[in-house]
Design a protein that fits this description.
heterodimer, A: 381 residues, alpha+beta, four-stranded mixed β-sheet, B: 307 residues, mainly alpha, three-stranded mixed β-sheet, three-stranded antiparallel β-sheet, 9% strand
């Protein structure tokens, strides 16, 4: 056991901390889930990219610094510690990119990744459909082969697409073999939302932001070069993406350690209410537990082992911890919790966002089924 | 950073697991409920010969001079098998308090388990030779955990040594709770695969799956805190570990009983052997509330760090 970071890693932490302290926007940017806020966030993403902090773990040729998983975790801790903006590029850099590294051709990697890292192209997810939510294999949107044009024609509707109204591109699954059922006959496509036949309609979320969108596709042409992985093998490709979504890449421990510290600060500001002390400390311990569980997992990943269905345990844990932390903050605020027009408004908005956690990336009910079946070996039926 | 055990540490764990699976079966634990000594005859000697009992004792006093990080996985195994012996007290808490590696040590606050087996007894008041202490037996819900009140006049112990000893005892107890949680989870997952109602295994029902998933999650996030504390020996880290490990054991005990249904509510079935140990350990070496208070002392009132 060696629980210390190396001098190189500590130097990277110090360098990251100094840069973030000097550069994090003050006052905080408006929500990135609004049109104006999204534009402001893209300027921040560009600043991160220019300083080579946008995608630290990526290879240098694509805009990263070849940082190890450890350094990536350190950067995340520093990022949230500094109160830096949400990453509006997250669904590209944290979800699609690992999938492109695994399944993409060299041409796709060279064409897509640098533009994603700089924020020039922004990516949203096209998974859910009106009749396919938790049951993702129920996807009905179609891809029809167009041999003459060397590609596919997509039709159907995607929904709950986060920041779909602002992003330039969408990645998602479409049914390419009408004879196949469920997990078979699906293909993973990369779609330019400026293509003819695409209509995007923003949908206001619980928190009042236009953070959701419905995406309608009517005979939208996508070239073969924008198929990720093999045609009809899209389910396996998509599972790599959802593994990233549930696991540590989307929501690393730094985020919850920072939130726990902010709730502790609020606890002191509000006069150390002894009734909340025990629950506050229990939540703080949970944030620490997530940090050390991550270090445990990353040691395994660094030694070449895979995480697998454990990512479902991680997703349940961080999403429910996030709700508890925000509930505590609202209790500390008391009557002021409902106000949106002062600093406390950030906590209510944060609470609303935390409530999405147990729903997105596969509901926690589905995750618990996955844990029972794949970790504990209980029967599906 | 390398947060993982070495191959040697894992091999030692496997050897201890093999011994205890053979020599500390549910039948052995059950026998300890009613036999004269409350222990598994001969097992303590085997553990001593393997070097576990004196693992942390300096070589100059006949031990192996190893670390809590070497011991913690072995203590987890003693939890998994509900070993009815003062192994945490002797091997972890007592390592700096025994005169030599051959001694057995019992320890506790108001109740001292297995005090009758010990050469040395340690409480918050100090250290007793067993021959000079008066032991008043009490009746524990866990029949394989013989507990005593200890009366007499102890020799005082250095407060810093006592505090460090307690931290090791806390970490060791937390490790046992993880082992107990694993045992109850394994038993219940196996039962849920076998037991059929409405024509299907009960493990196919979402309600059962979710109980067991919650237990598995609790264990997943308790273990790393226990292992971290075993390396740092930091009292705050130990308190985090005990709080989460107790939660994992208690949540699992509840889920295990519920998923077993009435068979789990009998003493003929083995589940109670492990569940009752978990109940007892959750209030031993400080309960979750005490340990969260200690963490709060460090995190919320940094100028009054807990001892």
């Amino acid at each position: 056991m060696d629980l210390s970071f190396s001098p190189t890693e500590e130097a990277f932490r110090a360098e990251s901390r100094a840069w973030l302290e000097a550069n994090v926007p003050r006052p905080p940017l408006p929500s990135g889930d609004t049109r104006a806020g999204f534009t402001a966030h893209l300027a921040w993403e560009r600043a991160l990219f220019d300083a080579r902090y946008a995608v630290v773990s990526w290879p240098t040729e694509f805009g990263g610094r070849d940082a190890s998983l450890w350094e990536w975790l350190i950067f995340e801790e520093e990022y949230y510690r500094a109160g830096a903006p949400q990453r509006v590029t997250q669904n590209g850099i944290f979800l699609l990119a690992p999938t492109i590294f695994e399944f993409g051709t060299p041409e796709q990697q060279a064409r897509i990744l640098p533009r994603m890292a700089s924020g020039e192209q922004t990516w949203c997810q096209g998974w859910s459909e009106p009749n396919a939510g938790s049951d993702l294999a129920g996807i009905a949107s179609k891809a029809v082969r167009d041999d003459a044009a060397g590609g596919w024609r997509l039709s159907g509707q995607k929904t709950w697409t986060t920041r779909g109204a602002f992003c330039t591109h969408l990645f998602g699954l479409f049914r390419s073999d009408p004879a196949a059922e469920r997990h078979h006959g699906l293909t993973y496509f990369l779609v330019d939302l400026a293509s003819p036949g695409v209509t995007v309609r923003g949908v206001e979320r619980l928190d009042g932001d236009e953070g959701f969108a419905e995406v309608f596709l009517d005979d939208v042409f996508v070239a073969d070069a924008d198929v990720l992985g093999e045609p009809n093998q899209g389910w396996a490709v998509a599972m790599a993406t959802t593994g990233s979504e549930r696991g540590l890449t989307l929501r690393s421990p730094g985020r919850f350690l920072a939130t726990a510290q902010r709730v502790i600060d609020l606890y002191h500001e509000r006069g150390d209410d002894p009734r909340l002390r025990d629950r506050l400390i229990a939540a703080y311990i949970d944030a620490e537990a997530y940090r050390w569980q991550t270090f445990w997992t990353v040691t395994r990943l660094a030694e070449g082992l895979s995480a697998g269905a454990e990512s479902s345990m991680v997703k349940v844990f961080w999403s429910e911890l996030d709700v508890r932390l925000h509930e505590l903050a609202l209790e500390l605020l008391g009557e002021h919790a409902e106000l949106l027009d002062d600093a406390a408004g950030a906590w209510m908005k944060g609470y609303e966002f935390s409530l999405a956690g147990p729903i997105y990336a596969g509901t926690n009910e589905i995750q618990r089924n996955v844990i029972a079946e794949r970790v504990l070996g209980l029967p599906r039926k | 950073m390398r947060f993982a055990f070495t191959d040697d540490q894992l091999a030692f764990r496997d050897a201890v697991r093999e011994l205890l699976e053979r020599e500390c079966t549910p039948a052995h634990v059950r026998a300890a409920w009613t036999n004269d000594t409350g222990r598994v005859p001969g097992l303590w000697d085997q553990l001593t010969q393997m070097g576990i009992v004196g693992m942390l004792v300096p070589e100059a006093r006949g031990g192996m001079g190893m670390s809590m990080a070497d011991l913690v996985l072995l203590l987890e195994e003693t939890g998994r098998t509900a070993l009815p012996d003062p192994i945490v007290e002797t091997a972890a808490l007592g390592a700096a308090l025994v005169d030599h590696a051959g001694q057995t040590l019992a320890a506790g606050h108001e109740l001292v388990p297995w005090a009758d087996t010990a050469d040395v007894i340690v409480t918050a008041e100090g250290r007793f030779d067993r021959a000079r202490a008066e032991l008043v037996p009490r009746d524990s819900v866990d029949g394989a955990r013989r507990v005593f009140e200890v009366r007499g006049t102890p020799e005082p112990l250095d407060a810093a040594i006592l505090r460090a000893a307690f931290v090791r005892g806390v970490i060791g107890t937390a490790a046992q709770q993880c082992g107990l949680a694993q045992r109850m989870l394994d038993m219940t997952a196996a039962y849920a695969k076998e037991r059929r109602q409405f024509g299907v295994p009960i493990g196919s029902f979402q309600a059962v799956k979710h109980h067991l998933a919650n237990a598995r999650i609790a264990l997943e996030f308790a273990r790393p805190l226990v292992y971290r504390a075993a390396v740092t020996l930091d009292p705050v880290h130990a308190s985090m570990a005990k709080s989460k490990a107790d939660d994992a054991a208690l949540v699992t005990a509840r889920a295990a009983l519920q998923c077993h249904g009435a068979i789990g509510y009998t003493t003929e079935y083995d589940l109670h052997l492990y569940m009752k140990r978990a109940w007892a350990l959750a209030r031993s070496m400080g309960d979750g509330q005490l340990h969260r208070d200690r963490v709060a002392g460090a995190v919320l009132e940094p100028r009054s760090m807990p001892a």
